[in-house]
Design a protein that fits this description.
With 145 residues, this protein is mainly α. The protein has one domain. Helix 1 packs antiparallel against helix 3, helix 3 runs antiparallel to helix 4 and helix 4 runs antiparallel to helix 5. The longest helix is centred in the C-terminal third of the chain and has 29 residues.
């Protein structure tokens, strides 16, 4: 029988920590200081997003809320010890799926404003996140079967 604290689970710990660092810091930067930053307004104000009722409030805070949610799901996963081999990875999978949607939102915004290099980078992040989700689901299936 394998030791449950083997190094196999450390890859999931790394995934959790990366999600928390990436989206936690991004969310904090969006919530503090409050309000929509000038660079966001400059980038998206002249697009169809700027003509929405309320202006850029919904697009900006959709990103802020989803980034915070991805952080908190990864944090819950961390404290539930989902990184330990043999434990189900429900919250980690939810966090990764939400990250995929965040990358779709970010890629759309970058593409909308003609930032093609950023769009390509975001497509790469999406692919790596999808691979992390694949590894997580593969491990989780071994646990539940």
């Amino acid at each position: 029988m394998k030791n449950q604290f083997s190094t196999d689970g450390l890859k999931f710990l790394a995934i959790q920590l990366l999600i928390m660092a990436t989206f936690g810091l991004a969310a904090v930067a969006k919530w503090f200081p409050p309000g929509i930053p000038e660079n966001f307004i400059n980038q998206f104000g002249d697009t169809w997003l700027g003509s929405l009722p309320g202006g850029l409030f919904i697009p900006y805070y959709t990103i802020a809320v989803t980034e915070a949610a991805a952080f908190f799901l990864a944090l819950i996963s961390f404290f539930r010890l989902e990184w330990i081999r043999g434990n189900t990875k429900y919250f980690l999978k939810l966090s990764l799926i939400l990250c995929l949607f965040i990358f779709v939102i970010l890629a759309y915004g970058l593409r909308l404003t003609g930032e093609f290099q950023g769009t390509a980078n975001t497509f790469f992040y999406f692919g790596v996140t999808l691979f992390a989700l694949y590894l997580t689901e593969k491990e989780d299936k071994m646990v539940t079967t």
